[in-house]
Design brief:
- The chain has nine helices and 25 strands.
- By secondary structure, the protein is of the alpha/beta class.
- The protein folds into three domains: 188 residues, 3-Layer(bba) Sandwich (FAD/NAD(P)-binding domain), CATH 3.50.50; 133 residues, FAD/NAD(P)-binding domain (3-Layer(bba) Sandwich); 85 residues, Immunoglobulin-like.
């Protein structure tokens, strides 16, 4: 490869809400040489097609649409003179923070002082969940349908079944209903909804759209175009129960069955991945297993609220700035683990004794739930933080602060554990 190598202090891979927030914060911390690489034709990521409101409540104290939220950050990018390349596909990243990217102007080779990973996530497809049946037209992910209707002005269908009660799926149930389509059912394999409670009320109940829990699609019928789906009840192991199938005629099936952090670049660079989140393992500074490489937003773990992804990204920007100034703490750190009733915890390790925010999700819904942070030694566990939650839901990420004073109390501990306390 004969292309000249360009040196950049901080490269942010991904120009969605997390990437923009990280770049802006790093600039505010005094890092002048910042470059955002965005594969889309404009900054903003997925927010341009999210025309519903609800964004910005935590950060701005008002309900904004996705485009409104996005443009506030784009305006800051332009005002601060932060450089960005759009239509830029990063092809490779290695452990030496060397980046190869394809741009409309040609191949770009960069040696970065620090890298922030903010590539976002992608939707699971039919192939990922292996729905049997024929392969007709009319099967879309919910995000694709959102793109078609909100940006292209195209209706994906008139008679709709939605598999999965994720937030995008429920929001699209409302959107399609408002455009005149008939949403016959939202079908959820779990015994509880997968999305936020407010979307269950505002998008399904307010429009009398049926929500069928403990059901899944077991067959897709149709030759050229989808004609019907078969839905069946599932048992406690999520296996379809024979003899419970019912046919629902429809011309469209939307899939809202989960999101996957977009970590192919991270894996290529041999960043250590947490199988529970699908994202990188990080310390409280959001630094990955590769020194000087940080991760934030949905590429780290899937967020339910964009404001929290933004807050996390600002922290990544501060941490990258500290690293570039030579102020970052040294590894290794104390492990942080998910215990009983918890699906994952971020960060996965602590390298300092400063205040830290632990982000995690519970495994099942609950009311009046006590969640504790325990400091563990070889044979004992001591509760250092305990908090009661009126309601917990796997769809809602929980953020719990552990103060530096509490961490000092855990001096000598070998690990921390977050768990539901019975």
């Amino acid at each position: 490869m004969n292309e000249p190598v360009k040196k950049v202090d901080l490269v942010v891979i991904g120009g969605g809400p997390a990437g923009m927030a990280a770049a802006i914060q790093a600039r505010k911390e005094g890092i002048e040489d910042v470059l955002i690489l965005e594969r889309g034709n404009a900054l903003g990521g997925i927010l341009d097609q999210c025309i519903h409101d609800g964004f910005g409540l935590e950060i701005f104290g008002e309900a904004l649409t996705g485009p409104e939220y996005m443009h506030r950050y784009i305006e800051d990018i332009e005002r601060l003179g932060i450089r960005y390349e759009t239509g830029c596909m990063v092809l490779d990243l290695n452990g030496k923070r060397e980046i190869v990217a394809a741009t409309p102007k040609g191949l770009l080779v960069i040696k970065a002082g620090s890298v922030i990973l903010s590539m976002g996530c992608r939707e699971r497809t039919r192939g990922a969940i292996r729905i049997p049946g024929t392969r007709p037209a009319g099967v879309y992910t919910a995000g694709t349908a959102q793109h078609l209707i909100n940006l292209k002005g195209l209706m994906p269908g008139k008679s709709i079944v939605i598999l999965g009660s994720g937030d995008i799926g429920m929001i699209m149930a409302r959107r399609l209903t408002l455009e005149g389509a008939k949403v016959k059912a939202v079908v959820e394999i779990l015994p509880y909804p997968s999305g936020l409670p407010r979307n269950i009320v505002q998008c399904l109940r307010d429009y009398d759209i049926p929500l069928l829990l403990s059901h899944t699609v077991t067959d897709i019928r149709g030759k050229e175009r989808i004609e019907a789906v078969v839905i069946s009840r599932v048992d406690k192991y999520l296996n379809p129960i024979p003899g419970t199938g019912q046919v629902i005629e429809c011309d469209t099936l939307l899939l809202s069955v989960g999101l996957i952090p977009e970590n192919e670049l991270s894996k290529a660079a041999e960043v250590e991945i947490d199988p529970a989140t699908g994202g990188a393992k990080v310390d409280e500074n959001l630094e990955t297993s590769i020194m000087g490489v940080f991760a934030c937003g949905n590429v780290l773990h899937v967020h339910d609220v964009v404001d929290f992804a933004t807050i996390e990204a600002e922290h990544a920007g501060r941490s990258a700035a500290r690293f570039l100034k030579g102020e970052g703490p040294k590894k290794p750190g104390m492990p942080v683990m998910a215990g009983e009733g918890i699906s994952y915890v971020v960060p996965q390790s602590l390298v300092s004794k400063e205040d830290v925010i632990l982000s995690f999700r519970v495994l099942k819904p609950g009311r009046d739930v006590d969640i504790a942070v325990l400091a563990g030694t070889a044979g004992e566990k001591e509760v250092i933080v305990k908090k009661r939650f009126i309601r917990t839901n796997p769809a809602e990420m929980i953020r719990l602060k552990v103060s530096k004073e509490k961490l000092k109390e855990a001096e000598g501990a070998r690990y921390l554990e977050v768990r539901v306390v019975e």
